UniProtKB/TrEMBL annotation:
Transmembrane spans: 170-194, 218-237, 249-270, 276-298, 382-403, 423-449, 469-489, 495-521, 558-583
Highest rank taxon of the organism: Eukaryota
Species the sequence originates in: Heterodermia speciosa
Domain Amino acid transporter transmembrane: 137-517
Membrane topology: Multi-pass membrane protein
Protein name: Amino acid transporter transmembrane domain-containing protein
UniProt GO MF annotations: L-amino acid transmembrane transporter activity
Subcellular localization, as worded in the UniProt entry: Membrane
């Protein structure tokens, strides 16, 4: 294996002037191919080569971090809460007088094999890696805000507690929080060992491809595309409900939703996550304002009884807990220490899926890391975000459940009865939700564009001038499709539960342990004399097949591999039950003739 002393950032790549080589230990080498001349997803690239360049990149990042730490001023809490816009990203390597950085990204379409074949000299190789360096600008503070921007999390949690009761709600939310943090760590571990300037990871699907091949990449990309599209659509619908409520239902509900779809055409034009870090910063503080408004309103006013058809109690025991008597008096607010009487387990499972929604950001963790200046710092942002989410969301969910009981609505700010407070919460929530939807749309378009248009149709990368024009054109189309899909389904909570079960739960709790097992098996199977040799382009292995897999599985902390497999199977079982309960809810909604969003009648109409 190559000496790690060659990984210093000042050294050249020893492969640059090699045509082909021969491996050792009886393993023949492949013909040499430069990284920038590879296909975007080349199955001939081995784990060992990915790992070699990943370690090379991490060494460069660590050296740069040490230099920055020695020359930077002191870091205080304000610099974390309000990250500086002056950070220009990863430093570029010297090109000996040639143009620097992202010049190659702006002038060459590297998705075209013919263009890549022209890149053979060392200077252009450096521009290739510099193009990938230039894309990495986000800080860990920006990652913190991006992770905590998930608008559907805090305002769906009171509904989850109302569906599960005090004890099970607290227990499940705590378990979900701990496991979500653990899953984030597993994704970070895989990213750090596979991502490099030569072979950058752009999405969740890239990790799956490098560890398990094409099938997992397709599965991840399809599910990620579905989740992001539905997330955007769901936020458009919830914002439409809020706007219809604020307008006292004088504005057609379909128009209310369409307003936010059109707003997405504009907000969606933000392309880089560094710029989104500032929008996400604002969204977090706006969410805190909404939380304060709804808590104050819940503590001083009665629940919005006329919106009870959308409340958690409507899905528990045939809705008897929210049905008024003959005199029109609604039942008193009630709570349960354990699981409430649901008549079936479907209602409680739907509540559990809302709790899962609070930790649905893992799917775009690789995208966050791919645009970070120092991915090693991602753990700081992630753990701070998870702690923030747990403490704030837990307190908010319990508080709202304590005051509104079975009458809490999803999202909770729609369940306020006093119009002035209701409108204040709606206005702030709509702004924050639009930012969250723009973030989801940003990642969704990138996944679609990079995996379909760039790879199949050889479209130019988004870093090129032509790619930027494609981006401008795709945003309105994407938001329109999201609105049409979400608006056609009448049950908001049922749809969010289905998305949580089929997509969110998988990316947060099922796929990370699967990827971690694959990564550790391949990593631990590499012996001291094995690995990628950059001087020849060869990969040396002492064995292969089942013997190698078994050795890799049992090496090191083998018990963690066992735990991860059990963890993955448990998550799959929960996902199956959650999907069943969500589908039953949706079937019931369609059977009852519930209206979709293509009407002028708001689902909340009459809730004043």
């Amino acid at each position: 294996m190559a000496n790690m002393a060659n990984l210093a950032m000042d050294g050249g790549d020893p492969r640059l002037n090699v045509d082909e080589g021969k491996g050792t230990n009886g393993i023949s080498s492949m013909a040499y191919t430069l990284p920038q001349m590879r296909k975007l997803h080349d199955s001939s690239i081995t784990f060992e080569e990915y790992n070699y360049y990943a370690e090379k990149t991490r060494a460069e990042e660590d050296q740069a971090a040490s230099y920055d730490a020695a020359n930077a001023g002191s870091t205080n809490i304000l610099s974390v809460l309000f990250p500086s816009k002056s950070d220009k990203g990863v430093a570029q390597q010297d090109l000996s007088g040639e143009k620097r950085g992202s010049v190659i990204a702006a002038t060459v379409n590297l998705s075209d094999p013919a263009k890549r074949a022209e890149i053979t000299d060392e200077g252009t190789y450096t521009r290739w890696t510099n193009a990938n360096r230039a894309f990495r600008t986000a800080t860990w503070g920006a990652a913190f805000y991006l992770i905590t921007t998930d608008i559907l999390g805090p305002f769906g949690l009171p509904y989850a507690f109302a569906s599960m009761g005090w004890g099970p709600g607290v227990a499940l939310f705590t378990v979900f929080a701990a496991l979500a943090g653990y899953s984030g760590y597993l994704l970070w571990m895989c990213f750090m060992g596979l991502d490099s300037y030569e072979y950058p990871i752009k999405s969740f699907g890239d990790i799956g491809f490098r560890l398990f091949g094409w099938p997992l990449r397709y599965l991840f990309n399809i599910l990620q595309g579905i989740q992001l599209l539905l997330n955007v659509g769901l936020i458009v619908i919830s914002n439409g409900e809020a706007l219809s409520q604020a307008s006292k239902f004088k504005l057609c509900f379909a128009i209310c939703c369409l307003v936010w779809a059109v707003a997405g055409f504009i907000f969606g034009q933000v392309r880089t996550l560094q710029k989104f870090g500032w929008l996400a910063n604002a969204a977090v503080w706006i969410n805190i304002i909404v939380i304060g408004i709804t808590m104050g309103a819940a503590a001083t006013t009665a629940p919005n009884y006329l919106a009870s058809d959308l409340a958690a109690g409507a899905g528990l025991n045939n809705g008897t807990s929210i049905t008024p008597d003959a005199a029109g008096v609604f039942p008193a607010v009630t709570h349960t220490a354990g699981l409430p009487d649901t008549g079936s387990f479907i209602g409680s499972l739907n509540g559990a899926m809302q709790a899962v929604f609070s930790y649905g950001g893992s799917m775009i963790f690789p995208e966050f890391m791919s645009e970070m200046k120092r991915p090693r710092d991602f753990l700081k942002g992630m753990w701070f975000a998870q702690l923030f989410i747990y403490l704030i969301y837990m307190f908010y969910g319990l508080f709202m459940y304590g005051y509104q009981g079975q009458y809490v609505v999803n999202p909770s700010y729609l369940g306020i009865s006093k119009y002035s407070l209701q409108t204040a919460g709606n206005v702030f929530a709509m702004v924050s939700a639009l930012i969250a939807a723009a973030l989801y749309g940003n990642i969704g378009v990138k996944v679609l564009y990079n995996n379909v248009f760039v790879e199949i149709f050889r479209a130019p990368p988004l870093t090129t001038k032509r790619g930027k024009y494609f981006w401008v054109a795709m945003i309105p189309v994407y938001w329109s499709i999201a609105f049409i899909v979400a608006a056609g389904i009448p049950d908001f909570t049922g749809l969010t539960s289905l998305v949580a079960a089929i997509c969110i739960l998988q990316f947060t709790y099922t796929f990370p342990p699967l990827l971690a097992v694959g990564y550790m098996v391949k990593k631990n199977a590499m012996g001291s004399q094995e690995g990628f040799d950059p001087s020849t382009g060869s990969v040396n292995r002492s064995d292969s097949g089942l013997k190698r897999v078994t050795r890799g599985f049992m090496a090191g902390r083998w018990y963690m591999n066992v735990f991860n497999i059990i963890y993955m199977l448990g998550a799959m079982a929960l996902a199956g039950m959650g999907a069943y309960s969500a589908i039953e809810n949706l079937i019931a909604a369609f059977d009852e003739g519930a209206a979709n969003s293509f009407t002028c009648h708001s689902p909340l109409q009459g809730a004043l």
